[in-house]
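#data-curation
PF: Archiving a pair of folding outputs for the training set. Convention for this channel: one message per protein, sequence first, structure tokens after, nothing in between. First:
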Amino acid sequence: MNASWFDTFFFGYYPYIALTVFFVGSLLRFDRDQYSWKSDSSQLLRAGSLRWGSNLFHLGILFLLGGHTVGMLTPHAVYEPFISSGGKQVVAMVTGGLFGLLGFAGVSILLHRRLTDPRIRRTSKSSDVALLVILWLQFALGLATIPLSAHHLDGSVMLKLAEWAQRVVTLRAGGVELIADVDTVFKLHMILGMTVFLIFPFTRLVHVWSGFATVVYAFRPYQLVRSRRLNLPAGHLASRRSLPTPSRAAAPAAAPAVPPTVAVRPAAGRGK
């Protein structure tokens, strides 16, 4: 099927535009504006609903991000001996629907508290609200694809979408024509997903990089930290007690004690 200009731009050029801005923009922001590299948590203003919303949102989106990455970038020949394409689609529909509902509920709570709480609304940036709206729509579109997927349980559409993604990352042509006849809901879901990568460096989402970077903490070398307290070894104090105490007038000036050196692991940075 011949691709339209819409398909050619959004599924032929737009993926590379979004990924380029994603990587280059994140690097430039880290290099030039590290003080803004944070999650800008509003927990101090209102903690109760944030706990529920944030936990549900992160649980849903982290599972879906990992599932989409593995599911779409894994070649069919790798998992074919273990599960059919139709079986894989059913698993994706069930697990994606469950975690999609959790993420949708979480982002709905976060968006509601940011729009209705006066203090949080005044301290919010326009990008904060826009990001939550985009994520809310993305979850809604993702859930809307599940009923459509039920009409082709053979996994044919899923295989087309996966082949398109694999051709994008391997710089192969032909992906646009492959998904030209896919339902519009799938296309909108994919376009909005690429848009999230496009705006990533300009929002609070950059703190996701710090979350992945905390893995390096386990392999950090120990830092040497000098204690402010004068903690001398017990044996040294005992030997001092056994010596005669000189007169106050003849007592020499005490040499400044060197605080002991302690090896501790540096604390991991937190995004919020």
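PF: Second:
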Amino acid sequence: MAKLLPIIKFIAVLNDNYVMSHGLILPANYTIRPARNRTDRWAVYRLLVLEREKEPSRSKLVTVVLNPYTLTLLALLVLILLLIGFVFPLHDWFYILLISVLIVFVSFGFSQLSFLYNLFLENERRLVIALHREQIIGSALMAFRGNYSVLLGLYVAPSHRRRAVGNHLVQYILQRDALPTYLNAPPDLRSFYARFGFVETNIRRGYNMSKLQ
């Protein structure tokens, strides 16, 4: 019996560190859990916006422009242009340029505010995070809208992909959800979501896949 105790202890530790999901094993030192506080949510924001690794499908220009620091610099530029416009009489071209800058700034600023709203609104959102050695390396976000839910986003840092992390995030965020779930998946990810019961559909405008409970 004494010889069995170390084996039983090893199995217990193994079960804490490894999770089965669709026949796949989450490697050791990885954890999937809900976001617990605003610190977790800010960490997800940094991962998705400030520290996001470069991906082939993501334009470097878009990544730079959507950076909050870039938006802050744009805001300062707009204020400077407004100051110059009020102090010195300028031609119409200047105001055309100013309006163009304002439109760009407002558009990108609105996208950032919308993203922050979705990320930090806790009552109607479910945010699940993936951690490697206590550092957040992935996330999944679900929104609840009346009689259905929407999977708004799924992200795993490129250096941690192909380790079943994305599978576990989707499985975790879908559990205990009895509502029909919709998402808008790019063509290369539709087979991935099909593993969880999502099928291509046009039932609800704006979404191309659904999982009806």
